[in-house]
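Retro notes
What went well: the complex prediction finally ran end to end.
Inputs used:
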Amino acid sequence: MTTTPEDGTAVYGLLAEFDTADGLIDATRSAAAKGYSRMDGYSPYPIGEVADALGFPRSEIGAIMFIGGLCGATFGFLMQYYLNGIDYPINVGGKPMFSWPQFAPITWELLVLTASLSGVIGLFALCGLPQPNHPLFNVPQFARATRDRFFLCIEATDPNFDLTSTRDFLDTLKPLSVAEVPE
Amino acid sequence: MATVIKPTTTPAAAPGAKTYSAATQFAPHPEGLVGGNHDLATLGDKISDVSIQITPTPRAWWLFFLVGFTLLQGMVVGVAYLLYLGTGVWGINQPVAWGMAIINFVWWIGIGHAGTLISAILLLLHQKWRTSLNRFAEAMTIFAVMCAGMFPLLHMGRPWLFYWLYPVPVNFAAWPQFRSPLCWDVFAVTTYFTVSAVFWYVGLVPDFAVLRDVARNRLQRAVYGMLSMGWRGSAIHWRRYEKLYLLLAGLGTPLVFSVHTIVSFDFAVSIVPLWHATIFPPFFVAGAIFAGFAMVIWLAVPLRQFYGMKDFITDKHMDFCAKVMLGTGLLVSYGYFCELWMAWYSHSIYEWDTTLQRVWYGPYAWAYWVLILTNTLIPQLLWINPLRKNMYSLFFIALSVHIGMWFERYVIVITLSRDHLPSSWGRYAPTEWDYMLFIGTIGMFITLFSLFVRFVPMLSITELRELLPHAQGGRDGHAVMENAK
């Protein structure tokens, strides 16, 4: 565990502040080239290039929603057939018990419902949200991450992390500020 | 085509409000989609200051809210009396058993559909102008679906047994009848409401984080912090977020078509002449978007006027909305023509007689001509360019569409008043309780929308920031399609 030399509190990482999105993109690319892997960029709106540079080219959401939707649709279809065709057979207009075209609308609606809900639950679960507090919120200027500033945080868990040398490296990226993030 | 937009950075009807303008002078937006002179900070402040109560509340807000809240009491009284005496207090009877309940249901749910069109379909079509409208249009969708849901629920007569509509395993061992469009409707509307609400909330999470970080007191910080779930704008989170947003839009697009198609199946799967028509699903969907854009115009005009949101909802946006309304209006008019044509060309005497009853010698023929006037003729004024730029004329034409779309459903439902056996003819007139409930739902809509405008970012801060040109700190248009991976 990395601690500050001054009072020995644990350090979450080093946070560099940039005033443009392009500054953050360049910084993330340089840090990745330098061999840092445990880091994250923070911005008021999505910047795909940062996620690419962080080595996160593809999210898991598509797979989650596909599986969720498939389960919902299968369940919806079989449920309708079982309930109206087997458990309590109802003859409607002489149609066969397995009248699958008439089960299509509800199958579709349940596909959309389960795919959407699994996507949203998946997003929050993967991102570890809700998480009302986070070490980054200890840094006052981080409040501008939702406003007009762009941040790169190299985390203390990175194997290459060292308070002095990492700070020196971040200074070469011409940030507006570099701050230690207390744990 | 560069349009120069006058900077309108002060909320007009809010005296004492501050001016929002970036320190640097930027060139006008190349496509005229953002007016004023904004950078990331001023854009966010202008929208978030309303929610965190820095912008003084315009007097007009109180007027809207109090009128809406008063009308809402009509719903309380109307529902109470209905539950006390039963659905007999409405004008419904045989042969017109559906009456205003279904008219209002379809009217409201149609209005809701433009929100999904704007947020999902226009996103997939790379229409950047949707960005200024999607947030409040989605709110409109959710509130409209809530109003719509009231009617079938109350029309059941025993709304407390609504769970019978769902396949709940209870001890009476009967299940819903899944081959019925009315049952499909339950699933469609439930899914639509849930997915719209979820889509809206996902879009709001980063904006709640903005509010958390600019909050002025502990209460605001706690409430918005909770709602933002601790969103911190991590690049990895954004990547997942964008993929989810794109996929929700991709699912929302066929969903909105399926929902109104299923609503039209409530009519079209029956064998009533003029209901049993294949034109119904597309005709209903076009009508829904037509009505929804009329409501978007109705909501955008006061937001521009009283909150000074002309920077983001520019004349260009209003022009686009008017054009979509004109286009969908023509589709709807084609539907009216097609109904007449098919009745005549089919040589079915039942279809043709019902058509003549509807347009010529039936007791409600006047309603058909009101419909043609308000839905087909008056919207043609939108061909005239200055009328699309003038807020008064847009407001008036949108009013005409609201009336017309209500009459469209009225004309459809009233077909039941005359079949081919004169002994079973009947008349239908709504009672005061029908009107009270209808007006009550309008009150509910106004109340909810007023509260939304006051406490939730009415425009999407995050997406508008992306829309800003590079020089102003943005990404020159929303990049959801490119970055969603």
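What we learned: Chain B has one domain: 59-442.
What to try next: split runs per interface for comparison.
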